[in-house]
Known about the structure:
With 310 residues, the protein is an alpha/beta fold. The protein has eleven helices and nine strands. The relative contact order is 0.09.
Amino acid sequence: SRGIPFTLSTVSCASLETLADAVPEARLWFQLYVLDDEAVRNDMLERAKNVGVDTLMVTTDTVVLGRREWDSRSYLNPRRLALSYLLDAALHPQWAYRALWPQGLPTLGNLMKYLPREQQSAGSAAGYINQRMTRRLTWEVLADIRQRWPGKLLVKGILNAEDALEARRIGADGVVVTNHGGRQLDGAPATLDALPEVVDAVGDSMHVLLDSGIRRGSDIAKAVALGAEGVLCGRATLYGLALGGEAGAAHAIDLLKDQLHNLMAQLGRPTLEQIDRRCLRRSPYASPRGDLPQRPSDTLPGGETPGDVP
Length: 310
Ligand SMILES: Cc1cc2nc3c(=O)[nH]c(=O)nc-3n(C[C@H](O)[C@H](O)[C@H](O)COP(=O)(O)O)c2cc1C
């Protein structure tokens, strides 16, 4: 209703068909995890096309699941939530009721038709899919998807100019500069650091979007200043959703919007087009880089250059 596209994941609880039925006016994008089974992959593309998805986003940074050690404390074993989480849910019966009623325990809606009957719970299905994620996600595979998909194609998982140029070569319409919200490769660069070289390489001919860590309007402004055409939000809106359902997600979006508008007013730049690299100054404590203007005042007291600071 706010005109913002919603990207449905391959491993979402609601299926493409359920969502398109429930919210026919939504601008629906679909995120594809490329599975080994070509027939399943092509069927999902067909289903996305049939329900009116206009943009396909192929994720390239998850051919294997990262080790996610921080997440292991949430589980007793890969399929069982830790007792503390179950207790937490039990202590919030109203929340648990809202989250679980009327569907009950979640399943992976898009994948139900491909899953063996005994592996249809969300936990089992996630394990099944992890094993079937293709380990050979080459540019040829992406070129094949490009051939089959008539709508817009975004390649998600780009963190350097070289890959952005490859994405353009296979005919993608855009790239998403992302480190998967820091959930995959530990030590992947911050997306704001990777963005300028991607924009410099393909920004004149492709859409360049960014995600990972967008929590405030000022984060959006920084991405736009460095050349992103827009940003994607994961957890900022998910936190709102988890707390307050649809109204909570809408509230999170409104907060981001208000913060961005406030910042633009303070900058004296009332349109997004006016937000450019000149709005930014690199902290004197960051190592110097060529992609932001360096000022004489970036020299620290005592004459050291920023790069001298540990
Ligand atoms: C709970 C959760 C589930 C996610 N599932 C997927 C997914 O199924 N496919 C995908 O491409 N990215 C997935 N991501 C990564 C997001 O698409 C996005 O890159 C990331 O959340 C952006 O960072 P942010 O959460 O800081 O905004 C997931 C992220 C979270 C937090």
